[in-house]
From TrEMBL:
The gene is Nhlrc1. The keyword Zinc-finger applies. GO terms for molecular function: ligase activity; ubiquitin protein ligase activity; zinc ion binding. This is RING-type E3 ubiquitin transferase. It catalyses: S-ubiquitinyl-[E2 ubiquitin-conjugating enzyme]-L-cysteine + [acceptor protein]-L-lysine = [E2 ubiquitin-conjugating enzyme]-L-cysteine + N(6)-ubiquitinyl-[acceptor protein]-L-lysine. Keywords: Ligase, Metal-binding, Repeat, Zinc, Zinc-finger. GO terms for cellular component: nucleus. Coiled coil: none annotated. One of its GO terms (biological process) is protein polyubiquitination. NHL repeats lie at residues 139-175, 179-222.
Length: 411
């Protein structure tokens, strides 16, 4: 980029650009970039200083500053104009003390993050997984009824599915054959009334959230109930297992995340601890087995006739918020509406969600890269509500639209 010139030099020394009127203030126009879409060009104009044409940033000389007249410059150009400022666009005089931070632009920069579309427009694209092709389809109406959750056992390759059939849990083997059905519909202690989600622990136990009696129930792969946890949950919903066979689960009505520690083989609950509160209707949950990060999907209540929207939040292993993205933010950057229903981490730590608006599976990138919007499965899905990575890095997607599990692998 070279040494940055003072703002006065930027206005006077450079040759006139196409469409620029040098005889009046406010005529500075950046020439269009070859091969760039109109919306990308508009974003660059919004997010860069119109004097030096450098992108705004959150700190230092790139921080956007308001002048009293309403025009915005970067802090570096404000300093270059001297102690008695004159707006380079409308020529209104002012003093340095009359300038202020441009809050809307700072909030937009915070939302876009370091790998927003502006960075990609400048050639700094973040890596993303390749597209996936359909390899196998399991279930279907009659085998699965209105399925709500899917989980994989990486050690054995088995898939556990929660659905609304007479036996609520359906276990498929690696080849796609049914190995076991269990979890009777009924009122006994280990019966499953209304399963909302399912997880499989590394030590081989199937854990289910039951919205019918507001409990969490654990089974072995033979279908024997080993533990039922009723710790005052209001509506336990999504869950996933950690690498240590703990379970992270959401309580949608309480707006909280819990960590369950249990000796499932002995049917012993060791601890049930709330680890995050004040969430908005959290549902789907995923745990990254490499970093311990936790992803959760919040379902935000809509106003009036709106159906609301969703927000994906990522917490560190210590439950500090490290990233988030929602429908509003994606609309600002990609003009894309997203209603996320399930979330997972791939082996690189990227966040993957199912999106019922586009009937697709979307890669949102790593939390530090938010926001990305890269569809990795864009065909063959009707109403995707669940997903899980398998041992061979295939992706199993639960499609409640046709009551099936669709397994995708790299093409």
């Amino acid at each position: 980029q070279g040494a940055r010139r003072p703002a006065s030099a930027a206005l006077s020394a450079r040759p006139a650009r196409p469409g620029e009127s040098r005889g009046r203030p406010g005529g500075s126009v950046r020439p269009p970039r070859a091969g760039m879409a109109a919306e990308d060009e508009a974003e660059l104009s919004l997010l860069e200083c119109r004097v030096c044409f450098e992108p705004y940033g959150p700190d230092g000389p790139r921080r956007p500053r308001n002048l009293p007249c309403g025009h915005v410059l970067c802090a570096g150009c404000v300093g270059a104009l001297g102690r008695r400022l004159e707006c380079p666009f409308c020529r209104r005089p002012c003093g340095p003390a009359e300038t202020s931070d441009c809050r809307p632009l700072l909030q937009l920069l915070e939302l876009l993050g370091p790998a927003g579309r502006l960075a990609r427009a400048r050639g700094a694209a973040a890596p993303a997984p390749a597209g996936l092709g359909l390899r196998l389809c399991l279930g279907g109406w009659g085998s699965l009824v209105n399925p709500t959750g899917v989980a994989a056992c990486r050690g054995t390759g088995r898939l556990a599915v929660a659905h609304d059939g007479k036996k609520r849990i359906h276990v498929f083997g690696p080849g796609g054959f049914c190995l076991q059905r269990f979890g009777e519909r009924g009122d006994a202690g280990n019966d499953v009334k209304y399963p909302l989600d399912v997880a499989v622990t590394p030590d081989g136990h199937v854990v289910v959230t039951d919205g019918g009696d507001r409990s969490v129930k654990a089974f072995d792969f033979e279908g024997r109930g080993v533990l039922a946890v009723r710790e005052g949950f209001r509506l336990p919903w999504g869950l996933d297992a950690t690498a240590e066979s703990e379970v992270i689960l959401s309580d949608s009505e309480a707006g909280a995340l819990y960590r369950l520690t249990a000796a499932f083989g002995r049917g012993e609950l060791k601890k049930c601890q709330m680890i995050r509160a004040q969430l908005d209707s959290p549902r789907a949950v995923a745990v990254c087995h490499t970093s311990g990060a936790v992803a959760v999907i919040e379902h935000l209540k809509g106003q009036g006739l709106s159906k609301g929207s969703t927000r994906v939040k990522i917490f560190s292993a210590e439950m500090d918020l490290v990233g988030q993205v929602d429908s509003f933010g994606l609309n600002l950057v990609f003009s894309s509406q997203m209603y996320a229903t399930a979330v997972a981490f791939d082996k690189e730590g990227r966040v993957i969600v199912t999106d019922v608006c586009s009937q697709a599976v979307i890669c949102l990138g790593k939390p530090e890269e938010f926001p990305m919007f890269n569809p990795i499965i864009s065909q063959g899905l009707s109403y995707p509500v669940g997903l899980t990575y398998m041992a061979n890095d295939s992706l199993a997607v639960l499609d409640s639209g046709d009551h099936s599990i669709k397994i995708f692998s790299s093409t």
